[in-house]
Amino acid sequence: MNRPIRTTCPYCGVGCGVLAAVAADGTTEIRGDSEHPANFGRLCSKGAALGETLGHSERLLHPEVRGKACDWNTALDAVANGFARAIREHGPDSVAFYVSGQLLTEDYYVANKLMKGFIGSANIDTNSRLCMSSSVAGHQRAFGSDTVPGNYQDLELATLIVLIGSNTAWCHPVIYQRIRAAKEKNPDLKIVVIDPRQTATSEIADLHLPVKPGSDALLFNGLLAYLHDRGDSNTHFVDAFTEGMQPALDAAHACAPSTAAVASGCGLREQDVTRFYLWFSVNEKTVSVYSQGINQTSSGTDKVNAIINCHLLTGRIGRPGMGPFSVTGQPNAMGGREVGGLANQLAAHMNFDAGNVDRVRRFWNSSNVAQRPGLKAVDLFRAVGEGKIKALWIMATNPAVSLPDADRVREALAQCEFVVVSDCVRATDTTAYAHVLLPASAWGEKNGTVTNSERRISRQRAFLEPAGEARPDWWIVSEVARRMGYAQAFDYHSPADIFREHAALSGFENDGKRDFDLGALATLADAEYEGFSPIQWPVPRDRPQGTPRMFADGRFYTENHKARFVAVTPRGPFNEKDDEYPLALNTGRVRDHWHTLTRTGLSPRLSGHIVEPFAEIHPQDARQHGIKDGTLVSLATRWGEMLARARVTETQRPGSVFAPIHWNDQYARRARADALVNPATDPVSGQPEFKHTPVNVTPYQAA
Ligand code: SF4
């Protein structure tokens, strides 16, 4: 391989290390980095095909204002003036940023600092809201901080792995490869897959529990009661390090008086529920991995806490081979959380209490720091539609396809006074609504850091020249900030400058009070930043080697340092099925595509895996609705409609339909699944309910 550059895959939260080398003919060779602790050389189909997606044919190459190419100064002036005018005339809360887990931490930090630190509004939210904000909220309720306790190695040390709402084989393939390898090495390792669908992941399951959609909290409340009643509580841990067990147990017993009641409520066989509970009871080394199937529901936060409750009761947290484990969808969902990229976080894992606002005000030397949380994604776009947001900047994401009720999002964008989009792609469904387009550097062209699902910070490094006039996101935001009058605070010359400031803020007046602390990295020299090796935060001054596991000492980040049980009363979906819409639509991903196809759609190899949108339906429902395998069907909900190819399959649970989220107007007409999704959200986290929208499916009749 020709002089490889060490970098990180831009697709998912596994955060695999990649070696990239540009050959003499301009093609890029990609290999897994055998030294990266996330993947030890492995890659999945998407990561392995990265070299096929780096062409310039779809790139946004030059700035544009109102459809005309222009120079950077003209475009940046237009953005600064547009935002300044809206703030002057309507106040700081009349503007918003909608950002992305595709941004690097340094980009994210600068965008958050501009909005929350200098514009003085917290209206910056991220598409990570759509993938893991319920886990964030669940962590904060239980631990007092948004902390993932363990790491990937725990999967290899466990004797029981429970995969909940996670098609790991397709959505986090290298984690799946690690689990499969662990199973081959240790045939006694038990794997339980909890998912309404029979997926590729179920193939390695010793037990698959096809739960009724939405019944996960009941299943884990039943487990909590079972463990307690069997005497499996770790009383020392519970007494010394937790609080709130009794109300949580009371709530669990109230809804789950017996295993039979749980089985009935979850639509499962009682012997399967009993077997799962028994395995959980006898395997101390248990890791519970959860993902979008838990998070993307209107009670996702409660479900997360129902899972964590079982680990608190048994004291299975912070030690090798055990713990609750949220895996994130996006490459830098975790990095965005670190800088405060969610509208309800201020910065560096600090919330909006008066002490934090004052601390951040002093650190940033700004008198205009936001005092309260801003609008979360669904509410933010609702406010755009209501005319309350006058100027909106969308960075590196495609909300016209990916948000729920996406047709209303399009209407909102169409009537917004000033829309800016910075992206590396010229023609997304969202760029069509932009008044100003700013060409951003793509993967392979930019430098910075990302954090994966196990809190591991890794470098992304450039190995290609920027396409056209593309510039890094941090530079674009800093230039706009400078034009808005904040030159001194945004005088950055490199991502290393920003990383040092980010690390310093995390360690500022911290002294172990907050989980997120990179104090030991605040003085990295440029050369050290360049040679940065993957490391797991926190990295406080007295622990420069990082922290593989958290909470081993039983000390949490609540006020009294005790972890909190949360009493969970299971709730059904926000919108129930009815006679008009008798099935439940569940949306998700396929193995070889990423988000809205803007990158993976460029690879013929990846596109060849599944070539068109489809809808999976159980044979029993297909018969009832007159659907034949392989025919075109129309899916309709109260929010939108789409066409797809029917796949009649027994892997689908009766009463439900699965459709992938990826296709959009660039690739197929009337094929956007998220246009059908109800905009109901979890009341705690604001995460939308992508996993349950009442739907009707009928044979397609051409007009
Ligand atoms: Fe990239 Fe995720 Fe595949 Fe790893 S598992 S190569 S991070 S897409």
Automatic annotation (TrEMBL):
Lineage: superkingdom: Bacteria
Reported cofactor(s): [2Fe-2S] cluster; Mo-bis(molybdopterin guanine dinucleotide); [4Fe-4S] cluster; FAD
Domain 4Fe-4S Mo/W bis-MGD-type: 2-58
A GO BP annotation: nitrate assimilation
A molecular function GO annotation: 4 iron, 4 sulfur cluster binding
UniProt keyword terms in alphabetical order: 2Fe-2S, 4Fe-4S, FAD, Flavoprotein, Iron, Iron-sulfur, Metal-binding, Molybdenum, Nitrate assimilation, Oxidoreductase
Name of the protein: Nitrate reductase
Organism the protein comes from: Sulfuricaulis limicola
Included stretch of the parent chain: 1 to 703 of 891
